[in-house]
Amino acid sequence: MRRSLAAFFVAACxxxxxxxxxxxxxxxxALVPDRTQPIDEAATAKIREYxxxxxxxxxxxxxxxASATVPSPSAxxxxxxxxxxxxxxxxxxxxxxRLLAEATPRVQVFSIGKSEEGRERIxxxxxxxxxxxxxxxxxxxxxxxxxxxxxxxxDAKAEPLFASxxxxxxxxxxxxxxxTGSPTALMELAYRLAVDESPYVRDIRExxxxxxTPVVEVDGRERMVDVYRWHLAHPDAPxxxxxxxxxxxxxxxxxxxxxxxxxxxxxVLDTYLGWHAQxxxxxxxxxxxxxxxxxxxxxxxAWVDPILTNEWQLFGWSNVAEMTKMGMxxxxxxGYFDTWSPGYLMFMAAMHNGVSRLYETFGNGGADTVVxxxxxxxxxxxxxxQDPPYPxxxxxxxxxxxxxxxxxxxxxxxxxxxxxxxxxxxxxxGKRSVEKPTREGPAAYVLPGDAxxxxxxxxxxxxxxxxxxxxTRAESAFTVExxxxxxxxxxxxxxxxxxKPGDKAAGSDKDAKPAPAKRTFPAGTYxxxxxxxxxxxxxxxxxxxxxxxxxxxxxxxxxxGWSFGDxxxxxxxxxxxxxxxxxxxxxxxxxxxxxxxxxxxxxxxLVAQRGDDxxxxxxxxxxxAKVEAAMAGFSTGKRNYLAGTWIVRGAxxxxxxxxxEELGVAVDAVAAAPKVATRPVGKPRxxxxxTWQWTQSEGWWRQRLDLLxxxxxxxxTQDVAATxxxxxxxxxxxxxxxxxPTSLTVNGAPTAWGEPLPWKVTPETPNLTIDxxxxxxxGLGFAGLVNLRAFVEKGGTLIAAEDAAQLLVxxxxxxxxxxADSGSLKVVGSILQARFPDAASPIADGLGDRLAVYSxxxxxxxxxxxxxxxWARPGADRPTGRGGPKDEDVVIGRPAPPKRAEAPKxxxxxxxxxxVEQVRDNAFVIPEKLRPRTLLRFGDADxxxxxxxxxxxxxxxxxxxxxxVPLGQGQVVLFAINPIWRGETIGTHPLVWNALxxxxxxAHPTAK
Length: 1008
Ligand SMILES: [Zn+2]
What we know:
The protein is built from 29 helices and 39 strands. By secondary structure, the chain is α+β, with helices and mostly antiparallel strands. The strands form eight sheets. Strands 16, 27, 28, 29, 30, 32, 33, 34, 36, 37, 38 and 39 form a twelve-stranded mixed sheet that branches. Strands 1-2-4-3-5-8-6-7 form an eight-stranded mixed sheet. β27, α23 (696-707) and β28 (713-716) form a beta-alpha-beta unit. α13 crosses α16 and α21 packs antiparallel against α22. The longest helix has 21 residues, at 397-417. The radius of gyration is 31 Å and the shape is globular. Mean pLDDT is 93; it is low at 1-23 and 487-511. The structure holds zinc ion. The site of zinc ion (ZN) has 4 residues, from loops.
């Protein structure tokens, strides 16, 4: 991607006013090592030997200081850090840090928790003995700066703390498991910080507390080392793909900083905030030679403080300047990375008043020394990369370690020199966060106490709590002004800032800019006040995002929208009226939870549908009880129930009570079942299908099934290929998005040449778990397609999303469905409005009539009533002739012939009725009951965009998003959207659960 000259010019102009700010920080003084101190000559010789050219090292790291008492990394590694062929397990890395802590009072090690697979994560503190001894006092000062309310927002009271407080700089390594260099770099860095007596290192030690989590993804690290060991034993074979990193997700573990579903995210955030750190610096290795990507490119996240964006520039350009002066080529900042999404691990700091930083250095994905070739766009010279990386280079792990350590030492020296500036900024950013209601606003976000989906609301509030956001709950009703909206909007669960349609003032104003309307919220309403230190993250998650199609950045780096009120399917009202802060409310202690249990008495239990994830858990907890869903609304005299309400008979009342309390589901016991038509609610025997090529996206589905304690078999495409009678084992199979071309899912990797690539536990590879195979290469294959099809034809339900859905369409599973040509449409991870064509369909149970959905790239389906042709065609213009475009033409010399019957109006999500000619002698006409039907469709053009980027949305409006296709005795359910994504789409999870639980009843006829 190349940006226009005009864009460069604008960027250059914008940079100019920053010049004054550049004058503030101090340039690190004399980054010169003391060569008179004792040097470990053997280690120094090894460092020089393993560095492939002198310029790939710096004066800061081309030697190793010696210590008589403190062990260097070779105590564990058997060689210096970054040595060829040496890649330590996380357990060994941790062992070294504990040795270090035993040997010197300048190092301490703390456990910060366990991974999903039970492996320990640590944080290491390195500073002067005095700093570590006085840690509690220092932390008390940092806590005051972190929460300016403690000092009454008084700058004068904060002033003495700036000079007396030691800032905290937190470094995190190898969150991405194939990026392998940082653990050894951080081992050696900690050693240097502990023993080196160079003045600049002493300065760092005395004025900074350096925190290090050497391995963030501890599960993935052990697997990566296993794979590398396999590679060393099979040097001539390609290395098996690291198909699993953490237990659930791979690369996306660095997109979890919003929903915080992973232990690594929660533990790093808790550590960062627990230490009241100023900087979070995350190490990655996919770009040569050192790219400080925090400065990045636009657009910047709209919720970060401009004070922070200045700090990015200060750190970034200082790094470039100092390392360039040291003669290290290929160090640059700016670049192509846009700084929009707050999903990255480093962004935890950006969203909590700190400084987020990220390095990309150049890693070989292991510890081999190899020749690497760079693309032109990586090695070319451009204005922000005046000293670019080489187009071809022999590269070693040691080189990588040199760059990582040198960059970090420069950054730590900068922090030591500029500690007062950073602490002042830290205080100011916190203060401005607390002052948000009186600065830019809003005053608060309000989550109404009468939410239609209380389970989803509670889930959203728990995410905010995990983000350390304070939540209060109104003790009585309160009334505030909210922006009113036009009369067309506001059906169902509203949009942020909308008044409910019932409000008298809503829609009554004729002015173009609607006047605010009063709205009363009931007692029990949750209020997320913006006058708190961490208001920024709440604001960023709960507000909506808009990415202009005209933005100069044409290739967004990640999702462009995430507004959590939408994606969690629960109403969030953005309130600017400061009176909201006067509402009588109490802080919420402990995790927000919906209250569940059984009320009333009787042998029949009624469970209202509230679009809750917990319904999936509840169904399995109910065991063999008879569960049905009402096909119409009904009343018990005491209460009205909507269609979809569960009627449970034969449940063990004690077990049900326990489940209802634990899951937060309200159950009503009644004496007799209501007289209403019902459909069965199944308890399907379930399988989740994965490939051996990539498991990134299915991991989010698997994680959610585990969190909900849903029983399922985890099967691979190879299992499917080897199991002719899948139907004997399963009622439903989930086939989540894969993220590779569909042909690869079928074909796998070539098996005609090369040797098998195993993924299994062996003495050589003890950590290759989760699933196993002797050879990862074979894909689903034609046998797998045959078996999968037989599964459906024998009555199974197959649910597939995105590329998995596309695969089924391509392979003929879904007559009458095609993936729509997206035309000029542009969607990049956007949140879009969708509607149920038939709100009485079982898939809509508990969801109302509309739903916000996550769309990765704007995929949609088109339907036909024939297995071949029959697609809707755009209406033809009238022919040339008399009159205007809407007039009828007239043939001269005769009366007009009888007109053809007017075609019935067809919606875009429906199939066009076949014409007389299309039906005549056509073997491809699909019988009525086997025709595909749209269960969820995209919204109208004017309502489609909720958050993110949408360009030419008319090409997507009203098209099918979820389709049911009968096949034999069974059904295929195709998702063009991804309903289970990064823990952020709680609102659409029930689409999958409802489809699974309905099973064959999903064939519910369209209500017309
Ligand atoms: Zn990475």
